[in-house]
Amino acid sequence: MEHAEIIASAYTFTKNAFFSINHLPRWIVLFFYIVGPIIVGFIAATIVLQLIVLPILVSLLVGPDFGFTPEVLSGLLGYFAVLIGLACVFFVPLMQGYCYRLFRTGDTMPDTGNLWGLFFNGWRINITLFIYAIPLFVISLIYMLVFMYLFPDTGLYSAADVLELEGMMYVGTVFSYAAVQFVTTLIIILFACVGITHLCRTGSIREAVNLRKVADIIGKIGWYDYILSLVIMSILYLMITFVTMSLGQLFLNNVFIIGVLAVLYIFVLVPITVFFIKYLSIVYDTAFQPEEADTEEFDFF
To answer: Which InterPro entries match (predicted)?
Structure first.
């Protein structure tokens, strides 16, 4: 597999899709497919929480018995409204629906219209991701039961004394939980990326979560080439995220600049997502191409 050629092809596709004045409206539409649900969800949650829930909580919790103040409760509900707004990216999956279309197309960008089609196709991706994430939920449940059995008087986030035997067991259990979740997450990502691509190409959730079929596709691609492809894509994403977070740390107390950085990050994330999808699509297609004889003595990249 010639990774340099695949990168060049995905880059050319992304450049032709976005980097011109004529294609700026498409970029803006896809940007609002991400930001729109967040804004609408945040505004709706803020109205409900501040106008309906807050007066109820004030009447119940403000007083000498609990120590809350109306300002504290309002701030907590504000954070909760932000979380609800961010969750709307999952519950109103317009961008996921467009990614579904993009996986199915060839050398042209699909249409951005038909919001209902985007919504339902986005939920097909969400359901597939949820199925792949089930092992993470099961592991969390198992470890929660282990914590309840071994440390009935110690909360998950309590400061245990690591010098005592029970404290060492507690820390060891926490680290083992983190390690198991990390390894499981990596395995899920390996299968889910091809699974999502297979879902979009076949239209079948059953086929997308068929681990034997997915493993067979990865085997045809080549495990080394496939993992290297994911590493290349991850490096680009992590670079953009690192730069944004570093700038955010410099202006941590400036809410306006933090907001601008968040908007710019999402705006840049749109073409990067398209690049990822095109890159992964080309890698996926190599599993269904006839094998060619490799005449190179050493082909690292």
So the answer is: DUF4013
The verdict on pTM exceeding 0.85 is no
pLDDT (tens, 9 = 90+) of the chain, 301 residues, equals 677 888 888 889 888 888 888 888 889 999 999 999 999 999 999 999 999 998 988 888 877 777 778 888 888 999 999 999 999 999 999 999 999 999 988 778 888 888 999 999 999 999 999 999 999 999 888 888 887 777 665 554 454 444 455 667 777 778 888 888 899 999 999 999 999 999 999 989 999 999 999 999 999 998 998 999 899 888 888 998 898 888 888 887 777 888 888 899 999 999 999 999 999 999 999 888 766 555 555 454 4
Contact 99, 277 (CB under 8 A): yes
**C-alpha–C-alpha distance, residues 211 and 65, integer Å:** 54
Distance (Å, rounded) from C-alpha 62 to C-alpha 72?
Answer: 10
Report the alpha-carbon distance of residue 143 to residue 184 in Å, rounded: 14
Q: For residue 123, what are its two tokens?
A: 């939920």
Which residue has tokens 């190599």? 286
Per-residue 3-state assignment (H helix, E strand, C coil) for the chain:
CCHHHHHHHHHHHHHHHHCCHHHHHHHHHHHHHHHHHHHHHHHHHHHHHHHHHHHHHHHHHECCCCCECHHHHHHHHHHHHHHHHHHHHHHCCHHHHHHHHHHHCCCCCCCCCCHHHHHHHHHHHHHHHHHHHHHHHHHHHHHHHHHHHHCCCCCCCCCCCCCCHHHHHHHHHHHHHHHHHHHHHHHHHHHHHHHHHHHHHHCCHHHHCCHHHHHHHHHHHCHHHHHHHHHHHHHHHHHHHHHHHHHHHHCCCCHHHHHHHHHHHHHHHHHHHHHHHHHHHHHHHHHHCCCCCCCCCCCCC
